[in-house]
Amino acid sequence: MTIKIGERLPESTLAEFVETESEGCALGPNTFQVADLVKGKKIAIFGLPGAYTPTCSAQHVPGYVKNFAEFKSAGVDEIWCISVNDAFVMGAWGRDQKATGAVRMMADGNAAFSKALGLDADFSKFGMGTRSQRYSMLVEDGVVKQLNVEQGGGFEVSNAETMLKQLA
């Protein structure tokens, strides 16, 4: 069952490779409760099949990085990229994409969050196992306000531009 607009995000954890040690966050992979991260915040989330994959690297992440200032002006507190990869890969990919400070690269290593959302996908035929579908959502205080799920491998509705129009 896919999550719907008006529903609360499921209880789950995500991991992030933290580049700079701070109070409560060690250098390296840190695991966070989703409910704690979303409390009182407006977050633009986009999910995608995999780090370093063609559409994800050439269009999806760059669009959100490029439009970071516009998201902030529209009242978005954070932007998250979620993929079924480990935190080390997501950290390296974030550095490669120059996403640091703009997009939080969140690892859903075992696809638990993607499955709980009902937005997982079987990419076994490509040798990639269980992955995330390509989507975007706007979440306010843990509740889904917008949800855009791509159909058939497309890249039409989960891009940064569509989310910005929905925020206007």
TrEMBL record:
GO biological process, alphabetically ordered: cell redox homeostasis; cellular response to oxidative stress; hydrogen peroxide catabolic process
Active site location: 56 (cysteine sulfenic acid (-soh) intermediate)
InterPro entries, per the entry: PRX5-like, Redoxin, Thioredoxin-like_sf, Thioredoxin_domain
Keywords, ordered alphabetically: Antioxidant, Oxidoreductase, Peroxidase, Redox-active center
Gene Ontology molecular function: thioredoxin peroxidase activity
Catalytic activity: a hydroperoxide + 2 glutathione = an alcohol + glutathione disulfide + H2O
Domain called Thioredoxin: residue spans: 3-168
GO CC list: cytoplasm
CDD domains associated with the record: PRX5_like (cd03013)
EC number: 1.11.1.27
PANTHER family named in the record: PEROXIREDOXIN (PTHR10430), PEROXIREDOXIN-5, MITOCHONDRIAL (PTHR10430:SF16)
Task performed by this protein: Thiol-specific peroxidase that catalyzes the reduction of hydrogen peroxide and organic hydroperoxides to water and alcohols, respectively. Plays a role in cell protection against oxidative stress by detoxifying peroxides.
Family indicated by similarity: Belongs to the peroxiredoxin family. Prx5 subfamily.
Protein name stated in the entry: Glutathione-dependent peroxiredoxin
Species, as recorded: Massilia polaris
